[in-house]
Design goal:
With 139 residues, the protein is mainly α. 78% of the residues lie in helices and 0% in strands.
Length: 139
């Protein structure tokens, strides 16, 4: 008798977008370790990058599509804050150009994945609504 292998339960950790956002956050924490401890750019870069990843996690648990989309939009907003604080850090001389470019590339990658994920959920939601309206019309 063959025993069916149980598939592991999916978690937010399985999302590539979260993996990339988390990796970006770890990079930012490492890079900003050299900044003065109370510097605004250090604090805000860390908070906005962590907020990006955290909002992806929260969205994953939401069953309601509108709530899911709300948290993903909030993650995108936090990511844009990361983008700005990277520019500010460069302009203030806290970041070298190579480091700022590397962070901008990571931000761009997360932004692309996050936008795609957001659009996918919105599209799926729209398709589900069309299907339910079609089903209601045939009843």
């Amino acid at each position: 008798m063959d025993e069916a292998k149980a598939t592991p339960q999916k978690t937010y950790r399985d999302l590539v977008v979260w993996q990339k956002a988390h990796a970006m956050t770890l990079k930012i924490f490492d890079i900003t370790e050299q900044f003065p401890a109370q510097h605004l750019v250090r604090t805000m870069l860390r908070e906005s990058s962590a907020s990006t990843a955290a909002n992806i996690v929260v969205s994953y648990r939401k069953k309601n599509r509108n709530e899911k989309l709300h948290y993903l939009t909030t993650a995108l907003d936090a990511l844009e804050e990361c983008r700005y604080y990277t520019v500010l850090g460069l302009d203030l001389g806290l970041l070298h150009i190579e480091t700022a470019d590397m962070l901008q590339n990571a931000i761009n990658e997360v932004g692309y994945l996050l936008s795609s994920y957001n659009k996918s959920i919105a599209k799926h939601h729209a398709e589900m609504q069309r299907t339910s309206m079609t089903t209601a019309d045939t009843d």
